[in-house]
Amino acid sequence: MKHLLGYPAAICILLIIVAQSIFIPTFHVMPYFSWHYEQRQIPESIGVEKDELMRVTQELLDYMRGRRDDIYTIYAYVSGQYRQFFSDIEIRHMIDVRVLYDVGFLIRNISFWLLLFLILAMAFFKVPILATLARCSREVIVTFLILLILLIAAIAIDFSRAFVIFHLIFFNNDYWILDPRVDLLINIVPQVFFVEISMMIGVLLLLFSAVTIGASTWYLKSTAHLRR
Questions:
Q1: CA quadruple 119, 124, 127, 128: dihedral, nearest 10
Q2: 64: CB partners within 8 A, 6+ apart
Q3: CA–CA separation, 152 vs 158, rounded Å?
Q4: Tell me, what's the pLDDT at 165?
Q5: What is the pTM of this model?
Q6: Do residues 109 and 16 lie in contact, with contact meaning Cβ atoms separated by under 8 Å?
Q7: Hey, which residues does 81 pair with through a beta bridge?
Q8: How far apart are CA 171 and CA 70, in angstroms?
Q9: Domain extent listing, the chain
Q10: Listed residue (5, 109, 227) closest to 219, CA to CA
């Protein structure tokens, strides 16, 4: 019963960690966007004031997290002309991207409620909750870390190839192939942006995983005499 309830609960914890490691750099690092735009002189290169570009960025992020219905109505002054900021192909691509995030939010939320259910089931069947979660989570996350390190190594060898493979796997069209001469999106978030965001995600995954493993190990050691 410990394994039957413990390992699914540990997988739920892992899925929550993965989801939050992606969502935090995406939606909660506006200072990074500000630094990125200034450091690479993005506003000057596309003819948009920085404050205007930050507003557009916030509205785009609001759309991606479901707080805005569409991005057709995002307008801005570009080179002195008030215009729709995103082209049709960019909008189509961002609709696909939002679907991915919607799935991510759904997986995280289901994992959270399933975790609560499994904890209640442990209590009902008199399974030691903390010890079971600690032991199973440590095993699951250690396995995940090994796979994560291999994945990070593969991405680091050739990020451009990994970037293309990612899009081929998760998108069934070529809307993600943008033209920097006409599409603003690829200019405000070039490849270096995704490299840095990927690094943030990797660091958070490693940090959250290390904290979970460390806390689990400490708890199991500190309570070992109680289980003898």
A1: 60
A2: 26, 27, 94, 97, 98, 101
A3: 10
A4: 95
A5: 0.93
A6: no
A7: 78
A8: 19
A9: 2-227
A10: 227
**Two structure tokens written together for 215:** 């806390």
Q: What is the pLDDT of residues 28-84, one digit of tens each?
A: 999 999 999 999 999 999 999 999 999 999 999 999 999 999 999 999 999 999 999
Q: Are strands 81-84 and 75-78 parallel, antiparallel or unpaired?
A: antiparallel
Distance CA 106, CA 76 (A): 32
DSSP line for the chain: -HHHHHHHHHHHHHHHHHHHHHHHHHHS-HHHHHHHHHHTTHHHHHT--HHHHHHHHHHHHHHHTTSSS-STT-EEEETTEEEESS-HHHHHHHHHHHHHHHHHHHHHHHHHHHHHHHHHHHHHTT--HHHHHHHHHHHHHHHHHHHHHHHHHHHHH-HHHHHHHHHHHH-SSSTT---TTT-SHHHHS-HHHHHHHHHHHHHHHHHHHHHHHHHHHHHHHHTGGGG-
